[in-house]
Amino acid sequence: MMASTLQHRNVCRRPFTASYSKNIRIAVVSKTRLHAARGPGAEQQARSLVNSTAADAGLSRRHLMQTAAGLLAAAGLAVPMQPALALLNTPDGYTTRVDKLDGYSFVYPEQWAPVTSSGNDIFLRNPFNVDQNLFVDITSPSSSRYASVEDLGSPDAAAARILDKYLNKEFMSTRIGIKREGEIISAASRQGGDGRTYYDIEVRMASYASRSPYVATQGEVMRDYGLEWDRRFLTTLGAANKRLYELRMQTGSNTYEQDKPVLDLIRSSFRVVEVEE
Length: 277
Fold this sequence. Notes:
Layout: H1 18-35, H2 42-56, H3 61-74, H4 83-86, E1 94-99, E2 104-109, E3 113-114, E4 122-125, E5 133-138, H5 155-170, E6 178-191, E7 197-210, H6 218-223, E8 225-240, E9 243-252, H7 256-269, E10 271-272
Antiparallel strand pairs: 1-2, 2-10, 3-4, 4-5, 5-9, 6-7, 7-8, 8-9
């Protein structure tokens, strides 16, 4: 039995408060000073200035880095893209998602839309197919120490953990007369174009509902089931920055074969990269 979720750490617009106004004033002062930074070592000087002023303003790490990038660009100083991310080619009809703060990138169909109410790093949905979506989930930097995706064990071991999570956590139902079933379709290791090891895992999940959930005996409940949904979940796992990265896609099993070329392209484009502290 089979389904999906996981969602997006949304970087929301901050309310215009007194403290946020202070951040803006500091950023303006920093920008003025940045324009004076020229000559050898100017970029490093500018980065140090931005980091210190943003820290004084009480910005989070993500907002601090976004402020730094914006001010460096405003001062005419290049913000170099990570090599592994810069080499990513974008096919026609696709958009490239590059997160230089957390260190990952992938391409996806340009008509897919972001879901801003989710709890993951990024969540995208196909507006023309309600069963089709993807998200990226990343372990906390304070609670993970992944040197490589191989720290999970073999691809088969990683797939078994994912299936167990689906059956006993994510898709476990307390509704009367509901059954969930799952199977591992494939689990493989590959070396990406960036030289890193990635695990590609495919799981099929299905959900069945009893047509008579309130009859007298369990035997009668189990006798007449109908399919609720049947889905494929494609997961790519990678490790960088001592963190585990999970790109997960889902689609209906009934459209899987026609969707597979797009999903395979997204999956093969996924890259993780070390980021500067």
